[in-house]
């Protein structure tokens, strides 16, 4: 027996219940000649007439009567297998998000409260770190927000906003370089604003940076409207193979507006 396509089997089941090519064509919204052509090929592929023409219409052969229930069940199982996975936030066990360090303090609380309104799941919200990309690929992290940059093709990135770089704090003090993992370890965006600046203090804590701003200053990111100074594109990041999963889509729709609309 030759390999059969699902469309031919679907036509067979419709024809089996309709009893004529004309009625089957109406149900399928196709021409009668199309149904006849599919039936002719199916007969050849299976090696059985399948239907015999009578005064009242097409009568199934004994072979057609045997296979029809099996084919119908198989098609139903195939359609069921291809249906999108049902998703209910209330049934989630855990939600894990990694945020670039500058976002944690301004939007961390808002993000947690918004997610908690939708699900009782455990919420793990952490700063982006050197292991975040690997954790995304291993699906231990659902989504992340970080700078849009070159990454493996196995990671999907979608730009959601741009932020501006600017000096903040006391310009009379020392310049502090605040390091953000996977962003500015080996570069200095601040030099685009002032090429002569050299950091006197280097730290990797956004919280500590905030505490030092009365005496010193740093280069920080701000979600302002003009974005005229050294703009940085921010992306939502997830595993490419998971980008269309119901959970990731739900988190995208829930979190992206919060990140995009926040002000700091």
UniProtKB/TrEMBL annotation:
InterPro entries reported for this sequence: LysR-type_TF (IPR050389), LysR_HTH_N (IPR000847), WH-like_DNA-bd_sf (IPR036388), WH_DNA-bd_sf (IPR036390)
Organism of provenance: Colwellia psychrerythraea (strain 34H / ATCC BAA-681) (Vibrio psychroerythus)
Record's keyword terms, sorted: DNA-binding, Transcription, Transcription regulation
Domain HTH lysR-type, residue spans: 4-61
An example Gene Ontology molecular-function term: DNA-binding transcription factor activity
Entry protein name: Transcriptional regulator, LysR family
Family per record: Belongs to the LysR transcriptional regulatory family.
């Amino acid at each position: 027996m030759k390999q059969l396509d699902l469309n031919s089997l679907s036509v067979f089941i419709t024809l089996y219940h309709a009893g004529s090519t004309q009625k089957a064509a109406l149900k399928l919204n196709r021409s009668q000649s199309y149904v006849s052509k599919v039936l002719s090929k199916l007969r050849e592929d299976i090696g059985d007439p399948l239907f015999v023409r009578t005064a009242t219409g097409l009568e199934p052969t004994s072979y057609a009567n045997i296979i029809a229930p099996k084919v119908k069940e198989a098609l139903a199982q195939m359609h069921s297998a291809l249906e999108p996975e049902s998703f209910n936030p209330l049934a989630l066990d855990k939600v894990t998000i990694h945020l670039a360090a500058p976002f944690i303090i301004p939007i961390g609380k808002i993000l947690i409260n918004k997610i908690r309104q939708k699900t009782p799941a455990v919420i793990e919200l952490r700063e982006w770190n050197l292991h975040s990309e690997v954790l995304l690929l291993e699906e231990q992290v659902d989504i992340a927000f970080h700078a849009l940059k070159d990454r493996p093709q196995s990671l999907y990135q979608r730009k959601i906003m741009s932020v501006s770089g600017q000096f903040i704090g006391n310009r009379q003090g020392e310049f502090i370089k605040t390091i953000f993992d996977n962003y500015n370890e080996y570069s200095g965006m601040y030099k685009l604003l002032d090429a002569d600046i050299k950091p006197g203090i280097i730290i990797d804590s956004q919280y500590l940076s905030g505490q030092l701003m009365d005496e010193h200053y740093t280069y920080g990111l701000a979600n302002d409207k003009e974005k005229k100074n050294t703009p940085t594109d921010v992306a939502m990041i997830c595993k490419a193979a998971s980008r269309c999963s119901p959970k990731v889509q739900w988190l995208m729709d829930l979190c992206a507006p919060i990140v995009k609309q926040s002000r700091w």
